[in-house]
Inverse folding.
């Protein structure tokens, strides 16, 4: 049942807590806020869809409103669905480029990547991208790898991974594949140390989060169908669990497919989970690795979608196992990037305003490193602070390797 | 996942219980089904404002015996006068130690806080920047006041506040001037097609440049007054902007908390939650309990919506889920129950007509409903206490927190009491 | 405009500001008469504001009362033209369920056809496509041109047109006695319930359009009109559950109409006799609520899981058959009594019965009689001239308001039609919302206060829908009360009482449905106002939100659903009714409405003194505003 078919929005008691936790409301006075855009607006749109307000486009789908709501209203989903069903405006080319991560990644992550990366970092190029496409020129672009993770895996890892008696499948996501194959290698290190081999899915497309955000729903559905088939094959036919390193991919596969795309995924959903949650299961089952001390201080930033999943505890527990590591959990707060949102020219200032106080906290923390399960948060934090930001698996792999 | 203690509910009671067990060296996770009622509070905590028979209370310590006579099921009565007062006094220090700037104490007696309607309500601890009457004189601590509101902000009318302050005898109408601040810096927010809320205003005014424009507009108006009163729309993350403004205009600034979301209450909640994280607690926000297993008479583990098949296990559990609003109690058309474990309630008639009173201003029977416990504050099933399920805050039965003005006190006292019991220090 | 036919304060005095009185005021004013309307509370506070808000196609009466059916369909067509902004063309379904006799559908279709009501049988699948919320077990359905009508807007539009044509309309003016010269009624004695001031108005004709309170008015003229109040209880659901009106295709019964109206749906109604003493304070019982939910879920199963906002009841102003003590023989038809010919009481006319949607016809009949008596020859034009708000198309008005945020633009055009164009340019802050549930802005509230005669929060609610949404005034009440102070309607010292009265009035409707989310919301409201704001009960002895009880409130058209026809017309009765058979038709097809209209105060007294409303306006606005 999709959110709009149920009447969960009626549980809203108009307490307005969601508005207080909405990062966009804080930074952008054009946004009417989650309560009015969500449950209030829904009553009006049920009267007549013409009540749809195009200001709902400012929502970043961070879902902090849902986490804050004491009444269990799926406010973010209501807003997404309203945008998907009521907004008929045209989408700029820029949105196409930003949201079609597979296409752009496929074109960029190759031997020419160093050239592409260097070009994309040149101010004149960025100016052109801003004036022609509306991509924020102040934004530092993520760099692309010379070789995709899948290509590396096929050449360098597949055979060795198959030797492990226990296997999991990895939904690596676009970031690992195109931008940061090293994280994929870290994940293999961690799982292998626990005696588990890693397979890739038969076919993997972008989970669809940026496509849903930019309302390319047909493409999102097409991707979802391919992913669902691969996940079904891994889970139901091969009996594998599937691990996902990124919190947003995890949320999209598990929650947005049924809630926003109206898919029945009950056959594989319970076996598809965040990497660190699966590592918790392995640990509970008695699997341990030898860890070397990392004598440093890190701060953990809970990404918005991680907060919505409610699984930050698994990542925090994971890195707290590392000897010598001091872990401080940062207050729950959005960094402002919201996936591709912060890459749009018109959202750049909002994005940085939202994140400003988090950046201050990070700078003041005295930490050596920020840890986070979300790659877009990583880009934002690295661009906006002096600190590097890594995935918990990277840190854990480092501890396994001994520094 | 396993912790020493799992607290269900992150309102005032849950946060304080969690902070206290962390302080005692236990690991603790907080399962938090959405933000708490603390966000709607006035930013003040009451201890006991009235007895059930309507008698106003000026000093809670002197009234606890009468309370026990009139309301023997009240948590204060269960704990006993001495223990209640001891816990109350500890709560004062506990909250201040964790960063809440609060005035007042049980020893000093009830203070009168001033509401956005200009009425006065007895309270125990109030945010130090909030406007209140001088406990000693019953008057405002200043002679000449400027009540300045923000143009377009509807939650507090300067005229309404002034006229009621004068009517209470706290001051005279002549001594109060009112002003409406133009603050062009808010114009963009004024065009926002939603409520013009205190929180949104604060998030603009807290910026130093915006604060400077506020000071510039206020300073000439404040030249011949002893203090300035503003609606609480300043100081989202801390009360520092209020102090800064006061320095800039050269007279004390006090605020009056307005409609929800309560700026001060929400700030208190955030301060306590961040402290909980900083102290090593694990917070499961936006999660709700969906199932549980018993181990003999004890609670073995709980299951939640987010964690699905992975249980959360603990030696001790604290139930601090609040009343109906917060979901601790659930009502259908013909039944009231404790939501998570179906614990015994003090009273819960099936006849819906008996839950409410005809006038909204009469005490509402449903406000008394809640979990039955003995002095150990453990939940009961069919009359048998669950040894490791401790109950704190408004999910407890036997009192009407609004009518008696005791919700804050009950939350704090019972939270510390259950934490003590878990830590083995008392009870 | 012809010269006035009489001296005195007015040519005609109309007692009652319900839809009937408003319609008469409009018709009289348009025919050049000097009309004066007096209403003891606010407009639409009687049965007008306490019904389904159903724009009957007439199909409901086609089998049992063909005459009423024909009146309905004719007026239905007229209202779609003259009151476009008050009407929603939803269409209606009459569904048959497995327990209903499907053979009745044939009888029903034939009867609709005879009454000239376009009706078309649908198979169950078609019906489900048209209205997905309908009970999927239906065995058949008939589509008819039912719709929804907003009684508050309709009444106000009539008042606006009446005043534009010179009528004076005084709310919060309670009739305390009739002026008589010999047997003749020559005027009224009224008391301004906000200020306590009394005065007299004289006119050659006085019309009793006071609804169920008309019996007491008639007694002031020493004539007997036996009314028989029956209560109809309804529930308001939290959102629009259905988009098409759903009725049961059977003899009318309890809880068998589900009407979508604005942001909500309404299920009703019951029909039970109620003693006269209670008509000022009708309270819905838990049993009635349970019955409405039980029966309502048969129309649309999702109703059982839908949040209830409130329950309310209205009293139909039915005229009792003089010879029937049981009250079974009651007409729900239009009853126009010329007391001069009936009772030898010149200068006095009673209009009652009828239905919300036949108000215009009732007004025309009454005004025709008035004109005959006053020797005025002007013809009625109310069937063809659009009401204020319905003079231009929605698209045209929307275009003029392009600068407003979309939810506000659509909301105000929905509420005021083309009259909303004054809201095009507001100053800074005018777009801030006061009521987020119903998208009521500061600009809209200020306009209502300035131009629509608002004396309290409940008046404001009837004009704007402020406080009619999910939270029932929880957050907006305080802000709106602040605006009443700012605009000089309420003195600063009166603000807490203003608020307290609204909360008390809202609670009256919430209490019968206070479980689950409604109870959570109630607890939240209690914390806010009694906890955070320290609000206590209103200081005056009058616990109701209105200025007080009294005999006069306009009545509204009752329902003709199948009740027995009026017995042979007594002398002077222009009975529009033809005898019909009719079995009991419980539902109140009459006028019960989209909201739990205002709360009467529980004293039911008629003429004794009461405490004035302690929130009078400091600047003479109190009472008697001129629109």
């Amino acid at each position: 049942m999709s959110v709009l078919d149920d009447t969960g929005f009626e549980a809203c008691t108009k307490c307005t807590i969601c508005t207080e936790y909405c990062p966009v409301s804080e930074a952008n006075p054009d946004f009417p806020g989650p309560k009015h855009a969500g449950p209030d607006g829904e009553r009006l749109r049920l009267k007549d869809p013409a009540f749809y307000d195009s200001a709902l486009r400012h929502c970043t789908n961070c879902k902090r409103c849902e986490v804050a709501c004491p009444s269990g209203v799926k406010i973010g989903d209501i807003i997404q669905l309203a945008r998907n069903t009521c907004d008929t405006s045209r989408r700029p080319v820029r949105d196409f480029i930003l949201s079609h991560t597979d296409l752009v990644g496929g074109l960029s992550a190759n031997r020419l990547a160093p050239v592409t990366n260097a070009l994309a970092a040149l101010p004149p190029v960025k100016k052109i991208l801003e004036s022609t496409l509306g991509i924020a020129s102040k934004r530092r672009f993520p760099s692309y790898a010379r070789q995709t993770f899948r290509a590396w895996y096929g050449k360098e890892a597949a055979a060795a991974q198959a030797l492990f008696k226990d296997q999991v499948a990895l939904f690596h996501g676009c970031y690992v594949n195109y931008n940061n194959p090293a994280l994929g290698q870290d994940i293999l290190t961690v799982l292998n140390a626990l005696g588990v081999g890693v397979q890739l899915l038969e076919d993997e497309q972008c989970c669809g989060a940026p496509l849903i955000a930019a309302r390319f729903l047909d493409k999102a559905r097409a991707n979802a169908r391919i992913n669902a088939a691969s996940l079904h094959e891994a889970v139901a036919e091969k009996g594998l669990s599937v691990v996902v390193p990124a919190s947003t991919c995890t949320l999209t596969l598990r929650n947005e497919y049924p809630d926003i795309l109206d898919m029945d995924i009950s056959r594989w959903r319970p076996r598809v989970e965040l990497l660190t949650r699966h590592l918790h299961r392995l640990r509970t089952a008695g699997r341990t690795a030898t860890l070397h001390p990392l004598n440093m201080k890190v701060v953990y930033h809970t990404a918005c979608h991680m907060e919505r999943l409610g699984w930050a505890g698994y990542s925090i527990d994971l890195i707290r196992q590392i000897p010598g590591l001091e872990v401080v959990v940062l207050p729950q707060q959005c960094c402002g990037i919201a996936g591709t949102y912060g890459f749009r020219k018109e959202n750049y200032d909002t994005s940085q305003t939202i994140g400003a106080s988090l950046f201050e906290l990070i700078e003041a923390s005295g930490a050596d490193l920020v840890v986070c399960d979300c790659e877009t948060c990583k880009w934002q934090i690295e661009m906006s602070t002096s600190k590097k930001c890594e995935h918990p698996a990277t840190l854990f792999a480092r501890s396994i390797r001994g520094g | 996942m396993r912790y020493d203690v799992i607290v269900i509910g992150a309102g005032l009671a849950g946060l304080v219980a969690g902070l206290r067990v962390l302080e005692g060296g236990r690991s603790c996770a907080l399962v938090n089904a959405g933000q708490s009622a603390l966000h709607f509070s006035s930013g003040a905590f009451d201890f006991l404002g009235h007895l059930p028979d309507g008698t106003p209370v000026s000093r809670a310590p002197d009234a606890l015996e009468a309370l026990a006579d009139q309301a023997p099921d009240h948590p204060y009565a269960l704990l006993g006068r001495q223990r209640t007062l001891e816990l109350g006094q500890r709560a004062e220090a506990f909250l201040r130690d964790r960063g809440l700037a609060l005035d007042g104490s049980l020893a000093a007696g009830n203070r009168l806080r001033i509401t956005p309607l200009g009425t006065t309500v007895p309270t125990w601890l109030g945010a130090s920047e909030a406007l209140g009457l001088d406990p000693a004189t019953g008057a405002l601590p200043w002679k000449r006041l400027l009540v300045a509101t923000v143009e377009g902000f509807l939650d507090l009318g300067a005229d309404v506040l002034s006229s009621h302050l004068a009517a209470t005898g706290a001051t005279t109408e002549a001594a109060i001037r009112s002003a409406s601040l133009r603050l062009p810096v808010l114009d963009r927010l004024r065009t926002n097609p939603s409520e013009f809320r205190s929180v949104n205003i604060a998030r603009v005014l807290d910026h130093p440049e915006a604060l400077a424009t506020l000071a510039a507009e206020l300073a000439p108006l404040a030249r011949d007054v002893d203090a300035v009163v503003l609606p609480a729309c300043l100081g989202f993350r801390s009360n520092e902007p209020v102090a800064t403004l006061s320095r800039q205009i050269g007279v004390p600034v006090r605020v009056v908390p307005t409609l929800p979301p309560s700026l001060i209450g929400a700030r208190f909640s955030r301060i306590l939650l961040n402290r909980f994280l900083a102290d090593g607690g694990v917070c499961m926000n936006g999660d709700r309990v969906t199932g549980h297993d018993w181990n003999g008479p004890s609670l073995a583990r709980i299951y939640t919506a987010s964690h699905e098949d992975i249980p959360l296990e603990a030696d001790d559990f604290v139930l601090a889920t609040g009343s109906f609003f917060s979901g601790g109690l659930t009502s259908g058309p013909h039944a009231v129950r404790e939501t998570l474990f179906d614990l015994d309630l003090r009273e819960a008639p099936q006849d819906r007509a008996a839950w409410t009173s005809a006038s909204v201003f009469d005490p509402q029977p449903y406000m008394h409903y809640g979990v039955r416990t003995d002095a150990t504050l453990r939940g009961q099933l069919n009359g048998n206490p669950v040894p490791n399920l401790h109950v704190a805050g408004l999910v407890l039965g036997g009192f009407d927190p609004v009518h008696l003005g005791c919700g804050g006190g009950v939350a704090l006292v019972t939270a510390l009491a259950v934490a003590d019991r878990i830590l083995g220090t008392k009870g | 405009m012809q010269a006035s036919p009489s001296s005195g304060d007015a040519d005609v005095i109309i007692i009652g500001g319900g839809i009937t009185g408003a319609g008469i005021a409009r018709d009289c004013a348009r025919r050049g008469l000097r009309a004066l309307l007096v209403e003891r509370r606010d407009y639409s506070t009687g049965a007008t504001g306490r019904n389904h808000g159903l724009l009957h196609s007439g199909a409901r009466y086609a089998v049992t009362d063909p005459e009423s059916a024909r009146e309905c369909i004719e007026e239905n067509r007229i209202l779609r033209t003259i009151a476009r902004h008050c009407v929603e063309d939803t269409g209606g379904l009459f569904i048959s369920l497995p327990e209903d006799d499907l053979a009745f559908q044939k009888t029903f279709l034939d009867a609709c056809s005879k009454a000239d009501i376009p009706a078309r049988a649908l198979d169950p699948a078609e019906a489900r496509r048209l209205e997905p919320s309908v009970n999927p077990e239906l065995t058949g359905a008939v589509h008819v041109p039912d719709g929804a009508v907003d009684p508050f807007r309709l009444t106000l539009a009539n008042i606006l047109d009446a005043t534009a044509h010179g009528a004076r309309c005084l709310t919060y003016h309670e009739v305390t006695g009739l002026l008589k010269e010999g047997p003749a009624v020559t005027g009224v004695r009224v008391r301004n319930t906000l200020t306590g001031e009394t005065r007299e108005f004289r006119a050659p004709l006085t019309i009793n359009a006071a609804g169920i309170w008309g019996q007491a008015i008639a007694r002031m003229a020493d004539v007997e009109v036996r009314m028989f109040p029956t209560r109809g209880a309804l529930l308001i659901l939290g959102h629009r559950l259905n988009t098409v009106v759903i009725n049961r295709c059977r003899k009318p019964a309890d809880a068998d109409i589900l009407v979508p109206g604005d942001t909500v749906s309404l299920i009703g109604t019951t029909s039970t006799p109620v003693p006269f003493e209670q008509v000022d304070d009708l309270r819905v019982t838990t049993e009635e609520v349970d019955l409405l939910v039980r029966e309502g879920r048969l129309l649309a199963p999702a109703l059982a899981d839908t949040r209830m906002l409130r329950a309310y009841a209205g009293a139909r102003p039915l005229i009792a058959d003089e010879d029937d003590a049981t009250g079974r023989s009651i007409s729900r038809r239009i009853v126009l009594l010329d007391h001069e010919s009936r009772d030898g009481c010149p200068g006095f006319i009673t209009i009652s019965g009828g239905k919300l949607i036949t108000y215009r016809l009732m007004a025309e009949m009454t005004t025709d009689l008035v004109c005959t008596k006053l020797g005025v020859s002007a013809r009625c034009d109310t069937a063809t001239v659009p009401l204020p708000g319905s003079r231009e198309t929605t698209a045209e008005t929307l275009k003029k308001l392009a600068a407003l945020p979309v939810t506000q633009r659509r909301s105000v055009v929905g509420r005021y039609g083309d009259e909303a164009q004054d809201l095009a340019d507001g100053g800074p802050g005018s777009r801030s919302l006061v009521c987020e549930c119903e998208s009521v802005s500061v600009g809209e509230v200020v306009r209502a206060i300035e131009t629509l005669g608002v004396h309290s929060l409940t008046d404001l609610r009837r004009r704007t829908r402020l406080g009619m949404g999910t939270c029932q005034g929880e957050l907006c009440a305080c802000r709106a009360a602040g605006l009443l102070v700012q605009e000089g309607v309420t003195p600063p010292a009166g603000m807490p009482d203003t608020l307290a009265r609204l909360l008390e009035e809202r609670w009256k409707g919430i209490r019968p449905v206070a479980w689950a989310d409604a109870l959570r919301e109630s607890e939240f409201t209690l914390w806010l106002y009694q906890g955070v704001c320290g609000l206590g009960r209103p200081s005056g002895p009058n616990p109701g939100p209105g200025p007080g009880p009294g005999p006069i409130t306009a009545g509204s058209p009752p329902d003709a659903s199948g009740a027995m026809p009026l017995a042979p017309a007594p002398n002077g009765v222009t009975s529009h009714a033809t005898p019909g058979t009719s079995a009991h038709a419980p539902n109140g097809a009459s006028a019960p409405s989209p909201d739990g209209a205002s709360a009467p105060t529980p004293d039911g007294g008629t003429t004794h003194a009461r405490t004035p409303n302690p929130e009078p306006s400091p600047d003479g606005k109190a009472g008697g505003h001129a629109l």
